[in-house]
Write a structure and sequence with these properties.
Layout: H1 2-30, H2 35-65
Helix pairs in contact: 1-2
Length: 66
Amino acid sequence: MKWFLLAFVGTLLNGAGLAFLGDSIVHRTLEAGAFNAWFWDGAVALILINAGICLIVEAAKWRGRE
């Protein structure tokens, strides 16, 4: 059951990261002088996507043990 929880949270983190990435792209293309807005959104997106991938890989490890 632990693998399911890890996979679920990992999927949610990936989705949130992609949403932040989209927001970062919008800020970058539409607002020329808003460096802080798109930079920090992109940084948060990178962190969330990587954390989600790590949790999904960890879930696959736990799934193989059961």
